[in-house]
What does this fold into?
Amino acid sequence: MYKFLITLFACWVVSTAAALDIDGVMAKLGSADYSERQDARNDLMQTLAEATAPGVDSEELRMLEDGLGPYLDGELPLASRLYLIGMFELFGSARSVDVLYPLLENSDEKVRDSVRRALSTIPGDRAGTYLISGLEKSAPAEKVHYIAALAYRGDPATAPVIANELKSDVAEVVVAVAQALGVLGNKDVVSDLLAAHKAAKADTLLAIEASLLNIGVDVDVAVKLVKKGRFAATRLVAYQQLKELDAKRADRVLRGVLSNPAYSGRALFLREVMVNGSEADRLSLVEGLEDASDVDRLVIVTAIGDLGLSEFEPQTLALLADTEGVVQARVIETLGVVGGEASFGPLNRIYRLNPKTDG
It folds into this structure.
């Protein structure tokens, strides 16, 4: 009975698709009357949905695509043509890309954009090939849209071709390429990204570094980014990846960072040690508070409070008489979180001397 119903449904869909008066529906789609246009849209969407239902012969979709194709570049109003392209985006088969491809050179920007979106979703390798072709021929202003479409398709094999655009003199293109490569995750383009990083200008560096880290780097690249990354956040993420790859090498790199007061991103690394470091490293930082800079003290003491590390109450309390301003206020706040009886007396004296102190 179940098979009979499936067969009956498929036959009904076949008759529905075959019976669709494409010329009549297209005439309504281009009508000045709103209700006629809406009827045409509903008929078209329903018929395409039925033609792509599970178990339906793909020949029905082919018939519809062949019938609708000529109207894509016909004399329909722009809004109707865009709707028709949208239907190919939703329901089009791999063979429909041959009809859409020529429209990438259409004079109307909205048409080109709609076709790119359709090619970004339609299955099959040819859609990606056509997008690559469009990318290679397009002006810089449109390259970013082709790159986004290829990234949306998610085929890592297209990454090396996209990486060629890292040589562009247009920052927006380089940024778009880097973001796409980060999404596609093909390690074959790491060397291209490193070369681009070496020659990059300030407005593209962040995207390139983020792309490298999204793809995942090896030990040597991770070390290089920790030492020479342009941004503190990317240096930290590079260290975190290095720690997963080679814990001993990461530990040596960390020692170098912590021994350099001028290191860019030092505060992030101090916080990282307090949150995710070993007990020994954490204790080493806390015991060094007495000789630490105000900036380092602020980071470490804040972490003690945030993490509720009451075992470090003595070292924090020792700072109370040795700090002032913002740092002392943070010490008081932290002692309010992790302090016990030992902290009560000193905090009470400060409050009595300055009742407005709110920690």
Notes: The first helix runs from residue 2 to 19. The mean pLDDT is 91.
